[in-house]
């Protein structure tokens, strides 16, 4: 449980709110919204560090698609949409953004242990992940972020296909995120006809609304301490 907000007016910093009394039962308490909110923010950060700070948006076509496979081609606005989905899930929802580079590292760790291959990426191998299944199986939703790995590795498409197939085998959803400037297609480091087959039938969202902040930023000219501001507001009150 996260620490309560000490300035919270609901729980006065205790983190607990008393339920409606129902005598003869003793008083019962539930976790305050300020604690639940913080739990969810912590969960969002577990999925991807920094994600909770992505600009907020009002709506996303990705909402309610967290149990299906989805291919999204979008720029960094994707992060706002992912945040939009993640903050609406319970704090126990397990999701994780995994980069294409991490996938290859996981695969290399496996082959390095089995002593089969000396690979140009071998120096990247860590013992953090022992295999692709160790990396991709546990979360409820895995978001595969393409475009992080730039060094060519021959096995890349097979590694991607194996990661997705492993998730499919477990009955779990995967989102694949590639960028418009570098789409997953012929010429992409991770593309092969085999990958194309794996992605057959996936819903493919090819554009997302650009990020527009929920609360419009103050215009720079209104930041001046103008004596007219009050009257201006009154005039614009009807709009
Ligand atoms: Zn509270």
Q: What attributes characterize this protein structure?
A:
7 helices; 7 strands; about 10% strand; single chain; alpha/beta; Rossmann fold; binds zinc ion; about 240 residues
Structure report:
- With 239 residues, the chain is α/β, with parallel strands linked by helices.
- It has a domain at 48-214: P-loop containing nucleotide triphosphate hydrolases (Rossmann fold), CATH 3.40.50.
- It is 30% helix and 12% strand.
- It has 7 helices and 7 strands; from the N terminus they run ββαβαβααβαβαβα.
- The protein has a 5-stranded parallel sheet with strand order 4-5-6-3-7. A two-stranded antiparallel ribbon has the order 1-2.
- Helix 3 packs across helix 5.
- Residues 217-239 have low confidence and may be disordered.
- The site of zinc ion has 7 residues, from loops.
């Amino acid at each position: 449980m996260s620490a309560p907000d000490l300035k919270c007016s609901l729980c006065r910093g205790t983190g607990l709110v008393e339920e409606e009394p129902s005598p003869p039962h003793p008083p019962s308490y539930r976790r305050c919204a300020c604690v639940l909110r913080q739990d969810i923010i912590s969960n969002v950060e577990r999925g991807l560090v920094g994600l909770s700070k992505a600009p907020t948006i009002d709506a996303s076509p990705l909402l309610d698609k967290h149990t299906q496979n989805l291919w999204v081609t979008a720029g960094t606005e994707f992060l706002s949409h992912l945040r939009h989905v993640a903050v609406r899930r319970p704090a126990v929802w397990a999701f994780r953004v995994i980069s294409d580079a991490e996938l290859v590292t996981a695969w290399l760790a496996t082959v390095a242990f089995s002593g089969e291959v000396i690979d140009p990426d071998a120096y990247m191998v860590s013992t953090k992940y022992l295999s692709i299944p160790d990396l991709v199986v546990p979360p409820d939703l895995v978001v595969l972020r393409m475009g992080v790995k730039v060094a060519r590795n021959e096995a890349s498409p097979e590694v991607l296909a194996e990661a997705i197939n492993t998730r499919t085998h477990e009955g779990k959803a995967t989102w694949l995120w590639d960028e418009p400037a570098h789409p997953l297609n012929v010429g992409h480091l991770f593309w092969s006809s085999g990958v194309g087959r794996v992605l057959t039938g996936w819903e493919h969202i090819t554009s997302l609304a650009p990020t527009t902040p929920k609360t419009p930023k103050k215009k720079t000219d209104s930041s001046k301490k103008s004596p007219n501001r009050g009257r201006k507001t009154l005039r614009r009150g009807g709009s």
